[in-house]
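Researcher: Go.
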Amino acid sequence: MSTPTLAGPTPATGLAHDYLDIDSLLTPDEIALRARVRGFVDERIRPHVAEWFEAAHFPRELVTEMGSLGLLGMHLHGYGCAGRSAVDYGLAALELEAGDSGIRTFVSVQGSLAMSAIHRFGSDEHKQHWLPGMATGELIGCFGLTEPGAGSDPGSMTTHAVRDGDGPQADWVLTGAKRWIGLASIADVAVIWARTAHGIRGFVVPTDTPGFSATPITAKLSMRTSIQCDIALDGVRLPADAVLPDVTGLTGPFSCLNEARYGILWGALGAARDAYETALAYALERRQFAEPIAAFQLTQQKLVDMALEIQKGQLVALQTGRLKDAGRLRPEQISFGKLNNVREAIAVCHQARTVLGGNGITGEYSPLRHANNLESVRTYEGTDEIHTLIMGRALTGIPSFQARR
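Model: Structure:
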């Protein structure tokens, strides 16, 4: 006896893409912003991203276009920034990363790291000089915290800044090295964190300053549409007012990292959604044993598992964004979202690749590219282990970042 076919919704109804009707939780303005960014990704990124990834090319021509869309420092107010909500920023990050993690990373480094540091901790002169041009994309910034020997433990940095002379107007001289610094080789300004006699301080460093050099890291297997660099600081001389005046210690860079982590917990879902939608479309078209592979139980299980994790992750992201907009978001809640959503997004992309079979290892399809990119996303702005320990400290009240003896 044959099994009757039950009538039910097709993917065209939208159920396949928004099973829980999460769109009903968004405002019309949020949906309109998302549509604008999605249209930009469909027109300017999707047709070319496989080539860019293969060639390890960052499409610099997109920078001013993203500026004109208000995507650079979009969560900041004043100085030409869009002043959008945290949820708006998250939705934009999701759509950009549906195109490619490298493009979303540019927006994160520019806006959440470099611009946020200047906006939050810089002098009025710093803000007026740098932020308007960075908001339009005419100027590019980078953020130098990580070092060759100091990744998850930035407090062990060896880059240092000393005063050359006495008095408040004495120059600063920076010496040291930074690694894995996004955009450094094309940046106009770098925010560099360095150890001083009075604690860790941030410095606004024009990249044409003598002694500053940035070398792109090549032969990457991930984030190939993005730029990461080694920075050398060889006696970089800066005026006294180059220091960010309103912060001392790791509170400054950590607050910027939390801005970037927030964007990541949304962005990773874009990569996952694109991988899932690619797998779903393929499964409905690809025929084996005289049936579309979407008719097979194991394929349906894979699609269901992907949809579950994407939709749960979207609820996590949206609630995190609403908390942020309400001024009630705690750092450990950002860690919750970054840890969960990136980890599950990688699993979704790997699962989507299996639906594509051998075709899934080619550049024609996105899931494996997304999975490779997400391995970097998983590592930067706090590894899984660091975010686990941040949550563990919040749950138990016991910090365990150092090995106990």
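Model: Residues 1-10 have pLDDT under 50 and may be disordered.
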